[in-house]
Structures
1.
Amino acid sequence: MQRTLWVTVALILPLILSATIVKAGYDIKAPISASPGGETTQPTRGKNSFSLPAANINRDQLRIFFFGNKLFNTNWVIAPASVKTLDGLGPTFNRVSCSGCHLRDGRGQPPTKKGGEFLSMLVRLSVPGAAEHGGPNPHPIYGDQLNDRSIPSVPAEGKVMIETTEISGQFADGTPYSLLRPEYHFSDLAFGPLGPDIMISPRVAPAVIGLGLLEAISEEDLKAIADPKDVDDDGISGRLNHVWDQGKKAMRIGRFGWKSNAASLLHQNAAAAFGDIGLTSNLFPEQNCPEGQDACRNAPIGNAPELSDEFLDKMTLYTQTLAVPIRRHVDEPDVVAGESLFRDIGCASCHIPTFVTGKHPALPILSNQTIHPFTDLLLHDMGDDLADGRTDFVATGKEWRTAPLWGIGLVEAVNKHSRFLHDGRARSIEEAILWHGGEAKNAKDSYRSLDALERGQLLAFLNSL
Ligand code: HEC
Ligand code: HEC
C-alpha cells in the first residue's frame, strides 16, 4: 500500500513539475530542436541566411516585410530632395542606411585596418547623473552618441580610433591563446575635449534576426527568471533593465540593445533612425542637435517628421519578422556532446536555451512559439575586463545583456567576419568565451579546463546554432 503510494507520487510529481515549467514559458532542460525560431524558422541561404521573412508570415504581412526591407536598405539623402519621403539625413549621423551597419541584417565589426574609421559600430556617450526617466545623462555638447559624419556645412562631431594590446593566456592543458584588448582614442572633436567625466560605450551593430520572438516572451517569464539577489546561490544574479519606452510613454522591461536598453522594437527603430541616421519621427520629433551645435540646429530639415509613422511601422514589422535560420549538423556526435557540455559547465544558466513565447501584441504568428534564443535578456555583471563603465538605466558599467546565440554559427557566412561581443573585440567564438568574467567567470574557467577535444565539441555545438 505504502509502496504504491510512493510510486504514484514518484510518477505524478514530475508531471506536476513539468506542467508548471511549461506554464512558466521557459525550460532549462528541454531538448533543443533544429528550429530555433519555432514555426518562423527558415532554411539557411548562404550569405542571405539572416534576410528571410518568418516562414509562417501571411501574404499581407509579407508585402509590408518587403517594403520594410526596402526602407532598411534605403540610403537616406539630404533634405530637400526630390523624393520627400526619403530625405532628412543628418544634420549629423553615423551611416546613411540601417543596412550600412546591419549588413545583410547581420552584425557589425570594428574597423579591419589599424586606425580605420567606424563603419558598423558606434560610441554611446554620457556624463554622470541621470537624464529624465533615469536614462543616461547625455554629454552637454556632444549628446548621447558620437556622430562621426555630417551633411556639408555642418561639422561632424569627431572621430574614434581603436588601438589594441595583445594579452596572452593559456588553457589548463597548456595550449596558449591570445586576446586583443581595445582602447579608444578620440580625434577631430569639433566642440573641444569630451572632458574628464565622459563615459563611453562602444557597441557593434547586432544581427537583427528573431527579434519579434524576443519581444513576445512574456514579462512574467522574465520576472520569474530574474534573480537579482542570487537567491538560488549559483553565483549568477540576472537583473531586469527598466527603461523608458518612447512609444508607450512608460517605463518597461528592457530587451533590446547590448544592455537591454530598449523595451520595444518600435522604440529601438525610431531611436536608431534618430541617433544613427538623423531622422526625426513622431517618437523623436526634434532634430538630433544638442544645444551649442548651432550649424546643426540651423540646417534645413526634411518632412516633419522625416520618418513617417507609416514607414516606421513597416520598418518595425520587418525587424519583428526576420527569421532565425535552421540549425545545421544537429545529430553529429560532436554537436550532441557539445550541447551537454554547454549545460554542464553553466553556459545555459544565462544563455537559456528554450522559451515558449507569450502573446505578441501585434503579430499572432510570433505567439506561443517554442524558441531557442540562448538568452535570458537579463543583465549580468561580466567583470572588469568587459566593463564599459557607463550606466544605462538600471544597468551598471559592468553589466551586459546575455547575448542571444541563435545564428552565431552563420555570422561568418553572412558577414564574412567572426567578431563577437558588444565591441567586437573577440576574433572568434572561442575568444568571446575567454573574455567572460564576473558572474560568468566559473563557466569561463570550466571552459579553460576542458581538453582540446571537448573544447572542439562545445564550439561545434555553438557553430550549429
Ligand atoms: C551606426 C551603425 C548603426 C546604424 C546605422 C543602425 N544601427 Fe541598429 N544597432 C546598432 C548598434 C550599435 C546597436 C546596439 C545598440 C545598443 O546596444 O544600444 C543596434 C541595435 C539595433 C536593434 C536591436 C538589436 C538587438 O539585438 O537588440 C535593432 C532592431 C536595430 N538596431 C535596428 C536598426 C534600424 C531599423 C536602423 C535604421 C533606422 C538601424 N538599426 C541603424 C548600430 C546601428
Ligand atoms: C553570467 C551569465 C553568462 C554565462 C554563465 C555565460 N555567458 Fe556568454 N554572454 C553573457 C553576456 C552578458 C554576453 C555579452 C557580453 C558582452 O558583449 O560584453 C555573452 C556573450 C557570449 C558570446 C558572444 C555573443 C555575441 O553575440 O557576441 C558567446 C559566444 C557566449 N557568450 C558563449 C558562452 C558560453 C559558451 C558560455 C559557457 C562557457 C557562456 N557564454 C556563459 C552572459 C553569460
2.
Amino acid sequence: MVIVLANSKGGVGKSTLAVHLAVWLYDRGHRVALVDADVQSSSSVWLQEAEPSVTVRSSRTPEEVVGVVRELQRTHDFVIGDGQATLDDQSRTLLLLADLAILPVTPSILDVRSVQQATATLRYAQELNGGRPRGCLVLNRMRRRDVISREVRVAGSSLGADLCASQVRDLQAFREAAQQGNVVTRMGPRAAEAAADVERCFEELLLKMEGTDE
Ligand SMILES: Nc1ncnc2c1ncn2[C@@H]1O[C@H](COP(=O)(O)OP(=O)(O)OP(=O)(O)O)[C@@H](O)[C@H]1O
Ligand SMILES: [Mg+2]
C-alpha cells in the first residue's frame, strides 16, 4: 500500500507524521519504506536515526519517484511518501501513485478556503485516477481552544477527503522527538499523550483503508 503525506502548505506536520507512521507500522511487524520527495531530506535523516531498518530513499523528479515507488512496492508492505510543500510535478505524481493520501491540517489554515487549496492536488489526482487515492484530513497541532468550524467539518467530502476523527494535539514531545531522532511512540511515559494521539489516528486511517469503517 502506498500512503502519501501531502499538503501544499508548509510546516503542517507532513514529515513528522510520515516518520511516526513509518516507525509505528514497522513496530507492528510490517516491511516499511519511506520515499522522501523533499529537497531538505528532513524525514529521511530523522527516520534513519530513529529506525535504521526502515528503507529510506529520496527522489527528486517525477520520473524518479515512479521508479522508486514501484520498485519498493514489490518488496515492502507499506511505502510512505513524504511530499514537499509545493504543487510541483513530483508531488502530483506521488499522489497519483497513492492508495491513501493523508493531509495534515493545522489550526492556522483551518478555514474552508485554505483547506480547499490544500486539497486541490488531491482532487486533481482523484479526477485522473478514477477517485483514487482516498484522502483524509488529519487535524494536527490542535490546542484545546481551537475550534473547527462546521464548514470545515462538512467540507471534507466535497473536497475529496474525509476528516479523521482522531486529532493530534500540539505537544512538546513531537518537537523533542525530532530533535532526538526518535518517535513519541518509543519515548515512554513522558510522551504518552503524544503517542496515544498518533496511535489513535493511525489506527483510524488503517481501518478506513481496510474498508471496515465504511
Ligand atoms: N503535533 C505536533 N505538536 C507539536 N509540534 C509539532 C507537531 N507536529 C509537527 N510539529 C512541529 O511543527 C514543525 C513542522 O512540522 P513538519 O516539519 O513535520 O512539517 P512539514 O509539513 O513536513 O513541513 P514542510 O512543508 O516544511 O516539509 C516542526 O518543528 C515539528 O516539530
Ligand atoms: Mg516536511
